[in-house]
Design brief:
The structure is a homodimer. By secondary structure, chain A is mainly alpha-helical. Chain A is built from ten helices and no strands. Helix content of chain A is about 75%, strand content about 0%. The two termini of chain A are about 30 Å apart. At the A-B interface, helix 9 and helix 10 of A face helix 9 and helix 10 of B. Chain B binds a DNA duplex through helix 2, helix 3 and helix 4. Chains A, B: This is TetR family transcriptional regulator. Chains A, B: InterPro entries: Homeodomain-like_sf, HTH-type_TetR-like_transc_reg, HTH_TetR, Tet_transcr_reg_TetR-rel_C_sf, TetR_SbtR-like_C.
Chain lengths: ~190, ~190
DNA sequence: CATATAAGTGGAGGGTTCCTCCGTTTAGCG
DNA sequence: CGCTAAACGGAGGAACCCTCCACTTATATG
């Protein structure tokens, strides 16, 4: 389970001492707000200030800005992975569709974060793998039911969907229309 | 013609005095190199230095970093627009396909620039309109030949393709495969 | 409980980049 | 040739980055 690895990584990086852990959590919270409000270029000193923590504490927990962005990002990804379980009761195609829409919503909202982080980092890779593992059963089920062309893999699908979700300056409605086009391509027999 | 508007805008912003125009061009060149080499966060003072120009001159021509990025970006977009004319001699579907591949190549290569610029800026909007105008005839021709579903507009298509092109950390090969899926959705009858 | 100690903390400060202001220079016109 | 408006360069204050180190505190142990 890659989620386990990911979760373990997060847990491992969380300090063991009580006061340190409190500061760590406070920093993550302050960072989430600051990034949402000011973008990923938000001054780190501002984040430390909001977290009521010295700047050095921020740097000790998150040596680089990217490390901080990643940690905020990680939580969001886990939520999407969990959503895969929540749609399991639906029909194969509906389940896949519902989850992919969830991915779109999520990536759309968090694009700011995604753009700010290093795509080659371990955490980012782990997140991607986590998404693959969460989505793979849904895809395979739909393929087994002959509803989705058999020549695509889950990473193709997620990248396709995530790419569309990441399109800027568009309406909810247009995004849905574009997504529908792409998903039509998915349904088509090979 | 939106390209004309765009071009006119660029021309308008170009200084009229000979020495000023020389500096302006030198700055654009230096910026292109610096962005390619150091990313869009390249120090503006470094760009000014490379252009052999005072920092104030840079700021006078481009009040913000974004304005500078936009100006570099503009040139690239014009090249893609022109490419639409170069494929006109092909069969309808082939022409559309060829041009969309060109868009993908271009967006992929210049993602660094695209990410650095403000998607709500006038210049960016003008570029988008320019791309629409360049691509629309190709799409319409393919639709008239019943090769593309009639319920899509050029902005849908370009956003779809551009979204895929912007996907990070992937191979050329996977990108092509994903693009093929999406374009299959395009071909399908409504 | 006392206390040793390892872990954690805050903020001063040196370095870099940003961006404005203003005194000086120069292109282009009459 | 000389005038003037346009353009120029760079000094310098402010914001931010990140490291270093002297001080504080949680927790394990006797």
């Amino acid at each position: 389970m890659t989620e386990t690895t990911t979760l373990a990584e997060l847990a491992l990086r969380r300090p063991s001492r009580a006061d340190a852990r409190r500061n760590y959590d406070s920093l993550i919270g302050a960072a989430r707000n600051s990034f949402a409000e000011l973008g990923t270029e938000a001054p780190l000193e501002e984040i430390a200030r909001r977290a009521d923590v010295g700047i050095a504490t921020l740097y000790r927990n998150f040596p680089t800005r990217e490390a901080l962005i990643e940690s905020v990002y990680l939580e969001e990804v886990l939520a999407v992975c969990n959503a895969a379980g929540e749609v399991a009761h639906l029909e194969p195609w509906e389940a896949l569709l519902a989850w992919l829409r969830r991915v779109v919503t999520y990536v759309g909202a968090k694009r700011v974060l995604v753009e700010g982080l290093n795509r080659d980092s371990n955490t980012f890779k782990a997140c991607r793998l986590g998404l693959y593992e969460a989505g793979a059963p849904l895809l395979e089920r739909a393929q087994a039911a002959k509803l989705v062309r058999p020549d695509v893999a889950i990473d193709d699908v997620i990248r396709l969907v995530a790419g569309i979700a990441g399109i800027g300056s568009t309406t909810e409605e247009q995004r849905d229309r574009i997504l529908a086009i792409a998903l039509d391509g998915l349904k088509r027999a090979a």
